[in-house]
Structures are given as structure tokens and as C-alpha cells.
Design a protein that fits this description.
With about 290 residues, the chain is mostly helical. Among the domains are: about 45 residues, no CATH class; about 130 residues, hpI Integrase, Chain A. Helix content is about 50%, strand content about 5%. It is built from 13 helices and 4 strands. A hairpin with a 6-residue loop joins strand 3 and strand 4. Helix 5 packs antiparallel against helix 8 and helix 11 crosses helix 12. The two termini are about 60 Å apart.
Length: about 290
């Protein structure tokens, strides 16, 4: 019997089927709550007409469908999403770009640095330079502590941070301009070892949230005339890693700098295959 021909019968129909089939007795315990599966063609031959059947995923007769708490929560979230979509009349991602954010170009990096220096935003300049050099995820940038980059009052040339996502340690370098920006910020904010490097608010013991960090990035790219919907916190993480790969072609080095466990993750993260294919295509003239 193929699966397409198997149907589930309501308990009220079972006696009719049994009588037509020659008076088979139901199993011990009666027919309530049991699922009866028959061949659809045999049913039609026995009864002489098509019977109304239940879908294969319906609940047994005499019982109610029970849902796990996870299914209940998932269904409530889906219902809420459908309600919002119907209320607004459009899907949640309409007009939004979904996918990886592109890296910044060197001219964009220098433009943002120049703007922040001219405006005297020492904290923003320290965050920006540190995010570019460290190649850390946003959640790791905002959770940095003073001792991670400047344990003795001055910025280190190389630092080590444990990633929150993977739990693996990753090392990164701090350029001279990044070290200078960090030291200027430490003096201006009077930060001491044990404090979070970037606080949520002045005097706060909590570190900056990733939402705050994302809003800062959107503000920076807007200052130089870029579309904030095209760039995000991962744009800063990708910037230096992409430049290193394009200049050296060393995927293993980029993998270590990004803290990826598999080199396949680095390939997907940088979009290496797409970039290489486009570069080859540009060199072919027809």
C-alpha cells in the first residue's frame, strides 16, 4: 500500500467499513482514540461511494491535538507576525537589504577618521580604529575591557581576546594611530583597568550595547555620504580582512585573524569565490 493511498478514517466511519469488509472486530479497547488506515480503493469498492476522510496529520478521533510549549510559542510568534504584516499591509523585510554587508574602502576609512578627528570625538575615533584593526565582531568590540588593550595605561601593539561566540582566543594588532586614539580616549574618559573600555553611558558600569554600536556605525557612514542600510558593524570587521586577502591571497592568515574554525567559513565570509570569478571575468575581453 503506497503512502498516497493510505487515509485516516473518523471513528464514526469505522463500523461502516467493518460491516462492509465482512464484520471484522475492532481490537481490544474499542475504536475510540485509534487511527484506522485503509486502502482508499478498497474503501470505495466496499462502501460504493467515496468516504469523507481526515488528513494524515489530523488527531485521533475522540482526542484533541496537543502541542508542546515550544510549538505554542512558535505559533503565537507566527500569529503575531501575521498580525503585524496584515496591519501594516507589507512584509517586515520590504525595502530592506538582507545579506552580508560589504567592507569599507580605504578612502571611506580615511574619510571617517578625518571627520571624527575634526569633530573631536575621541571615543568614536577609538571605537572605529579599534574595530578596524581588531576585526572583532560587534559583541566583542563593545565588551572589551581596559586591561585587554591597555593593562598598564598605554595601548599594546598586540592584544588577545576570547571571542564570545566561539569561546576561542584571537589575537590582533593595533596600529600606531589606533594606539594613539585609544590612549587619548583613556585619558579623556579616565578609564582604569577593570572598567569596560566603552561604557553605555558616562559613569556607567555596563558596557555599550550592540544596538548602540550599530547606531554609531550608521551615523559614521552617513557622515561621509554612504547609505546606512548598505553598511553595518560587520563592514568594519570585514574591511581589513578583505584588504589582506586581496593583497596577499593568504586565506589561512585571514582565517586566523578572524578567528574562524574552518577555512570554508572564511571563504564564505569574504565572498572569495564571487570576487575571484568577477576578477577573471573582467580580464576577458570579447
Amino acid at each position: 500500500m503506497t503512502r498516497t493511498n493510505r487515509v485516516r478514517m473518523d471513528c464514526a466511519q469505522v463500523p461502516e467499513i467493518l460491516a462492509g469488509a465482512g464484520g471484522f472486530e475492532p481490537p481490544h479497547g474499542g475504536i475510540k482514540g485509534r487511527i484506522w488506515k485503509f486502502d482508499r480503493s478498497k474503501i470505495n469498492q466496499l462502501v460504493g461511494r467515496p468516504l469523507q476522510t481526515l488528513p494524515l496529520n489530523s488527531a485521533p478521533c475522540g482526542t484533541q491535538s496537543r502541542k508542546s510549549p515550544a510549538q505554542t510559542v512558535r505559533m503565537s510568534m507566527e500569529d503575531q507576525h501575521d498580525h503585524v504584516q496584515e496591519k501594516n499591509g507589507q512584509p517586515w523585510n520590504k525595502g530592506k537589504l538582507i545579506g552580508p554587508k560589504p567592507p569599507l574602502r580605504p578612502k571611506h576609512v580615511w574619510s571617517i577618521r578625518t571627520k571624527l578627528q575634526a569633530l573631536g570625538r575621541t571615543r568614536d575615533l577609538a571605537i572605529f580604529n579599534l574595530a578596524i584593526d581588531s576585526k572583532l565582531r560587534g559583541c566583542d568590540v563593545v565588551a572589551l575591557k581596559v586591561e585587554d588593550v591597555a593593562p598598564h595605561g598605554y595601548a599594546l601593539e598586540r592584544a588577545t581576546v576570547r571571542q564570545r561566540k566561539t569561546g576561542r582566543s584571537v589575537r590582533f594588532e593595533l596600529s600606531e594611530q589606533t594606539r594613539q586614539a585609544v590612549e587619548d580616549y583613556l585619558r579623556a574618559a579616565n578609564k582604569k583597568p577593570g572598567n569596560f573600555l566603552f561604557s553605555a553611558q558616562p559613569g556607567s558600569r555596563r558596557f555599550m550595547s550592540t544596538r548602540q554600536y550599530a547606531r554609531l556605525v550608521a551615523r559614521w557612514v552617513t557622515m561621509i555620504g554612504l547609505d546606512p542600510t548598505l553598511y553595518g558593524t560587520h563592514s568594519l570587521r570585514r574591511t581589513k580582512a578583505t584588504l589582506i586577502y586581496r593583497r596577499t591571497g593568504n586565506l589561512r592568515a585571514v582565517q586566523l585573524l578572524l578567528g574562524h574554525t574552518k577555512i570554508e567559513s572564511t571563504v564564505r565570509y569574504l565572498g572569495v569565490e564571487v570576487d575571484d570569478a568577477l576578477a577573471i571575468a573582467e580580464q576577458v575581453d570579447v
